C-alpha cells in the first residue's frame, strides 16, 4: 500500500505548502429572504455562476446578471411559504432538503441527493425534480448526503450519512460514507467517512477495481465532511470540521495525497458542508448560513 494510505488530515494541514489567507477577498453572497443552508454546489461549464440547494427544497441558480432565481424544486410543496418557516425536520419531510448536487456533463441533467426524500434528477430546463429512488436492497435511504457524477461515464455516485456509498443502479459499494467525488479520469471514487474520521478510495477501473483502501485518516477531533473534484486537474478539496468547536480545516490535495494549498477559516463560516472550486473562486457551503461564502483565489 502506498504512503498515501497513512497520511492524516492533521499532517496534511501542517505540511509546508501554499497558505491562503482569508481576507477582504472573501465575499458573503446573501441568499433570498427566508432561505438558508446552501449545502452543496454544481457548476455548468458553459455558464457563469452556480447552482445550490437550500432549505425548503429549492434549487437556486445564481448568475451575476440576474442574481438568485429558482431553478428547480424537490416537491410540489417546495414553493410554499410554509417550507421556509417550518422547523426541521418537518420542513425537510414535507418540502425536501437538497444535500448533494452535481451535473451530468453529457446530458445537462442535475442530480440531487435529498437528505430525506431520496435521489432525484432535474431536466436541463429545471422545474419539478423527478424521484429516481428512495431506497436500496429493500431498505429506505437514511440521510442522503454527498453526490457526484462520473465525468467519463455519467454514472451517479451518492452517499448516506448512516450507511453507504451507492452507484446508480443501486449497487452498495462502501459503508459509513458521507461525501464523495469521482476522479477526473473516472478511475476511482474518494469517499469521506465523517463518523470514522477518514477518507477511502474505491477503485472503479484498473487492476484494483472493486477494492477500497485508505486515502487518509483524520485525527479523532477532525471529521471530513466533504471532498470535491477540481475540474480535470486531478486535484481535490477536502473540508473537515471539529464537532465540538466547529472549527474548519480545508486542504487542497492531488491524487497522490500531496498538499498543494491550505486554508484556515476559523469562526468564519458555521457548519461548513462543502468547499468547491470553479473559475478561480472557492465556494463555501453550509448547513445553516443564510449566505454563500466565496473566496477569490
TrEMBL record:
Predominant cellular place of this UniProt entry's protein: other
GO CC annotations on file: vacuole
Keyword list, A-Z: Glycoprotein, Signal, Vacuole
GO MF term list: hydrolase activity
Pfam family, one: Str_synth
Protein family membership: Belongs to the strictosidine synthase family.
Official protein name in the record: BnaCnng49900D protein
Amino acid at each position: 500500500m502506498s504512503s498515501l494510505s497513512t497520511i492524516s488530515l492533521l499532517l496534511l494541514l501542517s505540511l509546508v505548502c501554499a497558505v491562503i489567507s482569508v481576507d477582504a477577498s472573501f465575499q458573503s453572497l446573501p441568499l433570498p429572504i427566508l432561505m438558508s443552508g446552501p449545502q452543496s454546489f454544481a457548476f455548468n461549464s458553459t455558464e457563469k455562476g452556480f447552482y445550490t440547494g437550500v432549505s425548503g427544497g429549492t434549487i437556486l441558480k445564481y448568475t451575476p446578471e440576474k442574481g438568485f432565481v429558482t431553478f428547480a424544486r424537490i416537491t410540489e410543496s417546495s414553493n410554499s411559504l410554509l417550507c421556509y418557516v417550518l422547523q426541521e425536520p418537518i420542513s425537510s419531510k414535507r418540502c425536501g432538503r437538497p444535500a448533494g448536487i452535481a451535473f451530468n456533463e453529457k446530458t445537462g441533467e442535475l442530480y440531487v441527493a435529498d437528505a430525506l426524500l431520496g435521489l432525484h434528477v432535474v431536466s436541463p430546463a429545471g422545474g419539478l425534480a423527478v424521484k429516481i429512488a428512495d431506497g436500496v436492497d429493500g431498505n429506505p435511504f437514511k440521510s442522503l448526503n454527498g453526490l457526484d457524477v462520473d465525468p467519463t461515464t455519467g454514472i451517479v455516485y451518492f452517499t448516506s450519512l448512516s450507511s453507504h456509498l451507492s452507484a446508480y443502479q443501486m449497487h452498495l459499494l462502501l459503508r459509513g460514507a458521507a461525501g464523495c467525488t469521482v476522479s477526473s479520469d473516472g478511475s476511482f471514487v474518494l469517499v469521506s467517512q465523517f463518523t470514522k474520521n477518514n477518507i477511502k478510495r474505491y477503485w472503479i477501473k484498473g487492476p484494483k477495481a472493486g477494492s477500497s483502501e485508505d486515502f487518509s485518516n483524520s485525527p479523532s477531533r477532525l471529521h471530513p465532511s466533504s471532498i470535491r473534484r477540481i475540474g480535470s486537474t486531478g486535484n481535490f478539496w477536502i473540508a473537515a470540521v471539529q464537532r465540538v468547536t466547529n472549527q474548519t480545516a480545508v486542504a487542497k490535495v492531488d491524487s497522490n495525497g500531496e498538499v498543494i494549498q491550505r486554508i484556515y477559516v476559523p469562526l468564519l463560516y458555521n457548519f461548513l458542508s462543502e468547499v468547491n472550486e470553479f473559475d478561480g473562486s472557492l465556494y463555501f457551503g453550509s448547513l445553516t448560513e443564510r449566505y454563500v461564502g466565496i473566496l477569490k483565489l
